[in-house]
Amino acid sequence: MKLKRKIESELSRWIETDLVLLLTGSRQVGKTYILNDFTQARFSSCLQLSLHNNVPLIKAILGARDQKDFLLRLTAFGSTPLGEGGCVFIDEVQEFYTYLNKHPEVDEYFDLITAMKDITRNTGIRFILSGSLLRLRLEKFVNLNPEGSILRLSLFPLDFEEFLWARGLNQELIDEAKAKVDAREEVPDYLHDRLMREFQLYLLVGGMPAAVKEFLEKNSFVYVDMAHKAIDDYVRQDITKYAPDEARIKIESIYELLPRELSSPAKRFVLSQIQGHKKNEQEYLNFGWLAEAGVAILSNAVSEPIAPLKASSSLNKVKVFHEDVGLLTYLLMDSELKQKVILGESDGNFGAIYENAVAELLRAHGFSSLYFYFQKTRGEVDFLLERKGKVELIEIKSGKDYNRLSALKNLLSVPNYSFGGVSVYYNGNVQRKDEIDYLPIYAIEFLRK
Length: 449
Hints:
This protein is of the alpha/beta class. It contains 18 helices and 13 strands. The strands form two sheets. Strands 7-6-8-9-10-11-13-12 form an eight-stranded mixed β-sheet. Strands 2-3-4-1-5 form a five-stranded parallel β-sheet.
């Protein structure tokens, strides 16, 4: 089953350039599948190689004398002839730099990334690189964009609209819902009810392609859970393999604690619970490792809701969300709670799940830096977004208490503050009260940077 992904249009635009394509994304997010499908459709021939557990190929690349020798060595490990109009797709390229990191004695080597654009200009051969944890591996060794030679794209789990496509929802219906939300008009009941049901399913299935396919093909959460378990195992293996030796225990502990910390009332990490943590020690670098690896999404506290938000952000107060809401519900929820999600019951503690889905969708839609507001006397606001020089306030409500908005109202009462928008995303339909827009939770899909 082929899943339609938005990144396909960006891949088509890449063809019109002479850049090296670098596709990053977390483990099991669908990079290899998409690129295999894309190269088969767009190139007359494509030499596909993987560096996973392939030390002989890594050594062959390292020892290349020049560009011609580099191409010759690649063909020794594949069966596809290279020529103008063809491409080379090297998967799991992070293994190349992992090898270098473990072998500091290799101080002279063929730098495959910086040479590829020249090869394209000279031969017409296109290059595609893909892998997980790429930023962590590359930054020590190469400029991520030498002389403008690399187009870097990121692939995330399916967003809610892509999930709706997979579920067969007509695009015209999605566009109608978006138009109603943008106009601050109620979404028709038949459409609102359908989108709410689909969003509840999205909370359980998430956007990892393997889980989505199991759900669509088997129509069983048992198989979805099996897919989630396999992905979770891959994540833990990657942490063991790639995390810095001196920080591995802490990073493993943070990942293990993530579901519990998110479901706590504050939804923020209690640093003392991290294994090996010492008093007055910051853990932001370890949080950052998980974020750069694509495993987690960070949101920093700000003390002032004023642009630029980064100016008042704190490294000491941070929320750490899971990369995929489906994986979070797998780790966090028992079958009884999952049943409540499906039934739309609001007496469960779904705040963490809703917030995680929102963080995931915001990141996928261009908000690379996320913030929340925290000030002891005024309270806490879940998300602050910065668009067109203005700050927008967003509260996420999963239950019947959606009118409890003391922090929002406190900020609105401050004369010196001016906001580009104030919104509450909840289970109901579109309405407006007291300068606040109340929007359906699924409408977070329509927010773009």
